[in-house]
Amino acid sequence: LSTYTYSSWKGRNLYIDNFYVMPEFRGEVAKPPLADWAPLPCCSELHMHVSYLKPENMAYLVRRGGENLTLQDGWRLFRFYGDHMGAGTERSNKLK
């Protein structure tokens, strides 16, 4: 599952969700490189989330050139559900 995202600094990016390596291919050298597996025309970056509970997955991505943005830039991921998705905009509209 993948989708395109947009960075105001770098342009179009590809976000991959649920990246999975089948057991029979684990431990093998990825050919072609990971970035070549995805349709990246006009994309500046490839992004994905990795659980801190899966250090082996993080190590796999680092070995293939991935950068851990949490360590490098301090980025944190936030999520909003249901009624909370509009809560920030409602409050900001009341402040005007």
Q: Any low-confidence stretches, pLDDT <50, length ≥5?
A: none
- Output the helix-strand order: EEHEHHH
Could you tell me the radius of gyration in angstroms? 17 Å
Mean pLDDT: 78
What kind of oligomer do you see?
single chain
Strand adjacency order, main sheet: 1-2-3
Strand content: 15-25%
Question: SS-based structural class?
Answer: alpha+beta
Number of strands: 3
Task: Please outline the helices and strands.
Layout: E1 2-7, E2 11-16, H1 34-37, E3 45-47, H2 55-63, H3 69-73, H4 84-95
Parallel strand pairs: 2-3
Antiparallel strand pairs: 1-2
Describe this structure in words.
The chain has a three-stranded mixed sheet with strand order 1-2-3, with no helix packed on it. The model has no long low-confidence stretch (mean pLDDT 78). The protein is 31% helix and 16% strand. The chain contains four helices and three strands.
